[in-house]
Amino acid sequence: MRYLVTGGAGYIGSHIVLALLDAGHEVEIIDNLSTGHRKAVPSAARLHEVDLRDGAALASIFGAHQWDGVFHLAALSIVGESMRDPLHYLEHNFTSSLNLIRSCTQHGVRKMVFSSTAALFGGPDRHGAITEDAAIIPGSAYGESKFFIERTLHWADQVHGLRSACLRYFNAAGADPDGRAGEDHKPETHLIPLALDAMLHRRPALQIFGTDYETPDGTCIRDYTHVSDIAAAHICVLDVLDQRSVAYNLGTGTGHSNLDVLKSIARVSGRDVPWHAAERRAGDPSGLVADATSFTRDTGWTPRYAAIDQIIATALAWRARHPDGYGDAARQIDAASVMRR
């Protein structure tokens, strides 16, 4: 099959590209490299350095081949940033996605797998795992932008027959177990790489945003899902699209608090993470944990790397081999000195 992956040079997108190539598919990538990395693109995949808001460039790409499906991951995705400039987030994410969806309908693409988000459920504090029928109350402009896109895909199916799978994943984490790809955001905003760098003394002590939430230890609880498991889920859902459009919550079903993550890093590395408390951030709910029962039932997917220590170990291995991410793959930290085997 031939697939197009938007945002395929980014963190999750690069792992999806690897999964597709491993399965024997042909892959091309659309990425403007604003946050993605050219070095994250495997030699077997073709990169189009294009912004999704460029309609003429999209027409050229879509007109060159018959595509069996599109995986859409390109987006602005920092919750806190979206609360500082909500109109920019809403305009950018929606316009980009609308152009892409229109290109799919104009060129006969019948399947799209969309990277949605648990930020749809970021309203009032929730207790227990979140199912697909939970009320959608985005707690940020980022989450709202994703909901706009989900609704657009609904109408693209109703009117044009573009079937879509909206995968609402919670917190992607970890790195390719074979070391081919990992997490490299500039600036970095995700807890695990920030905590690892603090543990490795590559940045100041970690800030934990909020220690007064109504959780057992006062810190936010999140469902961390290994990025390779998320990539596998994108492939699993393709068969469901032969019958209907779907929306699924995707996660392990187990929540870990911020302090749980720091304890896991200490277990895996043998070193404590220096940290201090900071004020809560706007848009952060106290807990987000997925109920992925429907997805598992319909696809047979189950996470291979469900334990938090497994996730941390792959993230640390990537960080040790690529301390500056894709910018400097040559310089390494002695992994044995920071990991217990």
TrEMBL record:
Keyword Signal: no
Subunit: Homodimer.
EC number from the UniProt entry: 5.1.3.2
Co-factor requirement: NAD(+)
Protein name: UDP-glucose 4-epimerase
Pfam name, any one: Epimerase
MF GO annotations: UDP-glucose 4-epimerase activity
SUPFAM superfamilies for the chain: NAD(P)-binding Rossmann-fold domains (SSF51735)
Catalytic activity of the protein: UDP-alpha-D-glucose = UDP-alpha-D-galactose
PANTHER family with a match to the protein in the record: UDP-ARABINOSE 4-EPIMERASE 1, UDP-GLUCOSE 4-EPIMERASE
Domain NAD-dependent epimerase/dehydratase span(s) in chain numbering: 4-251
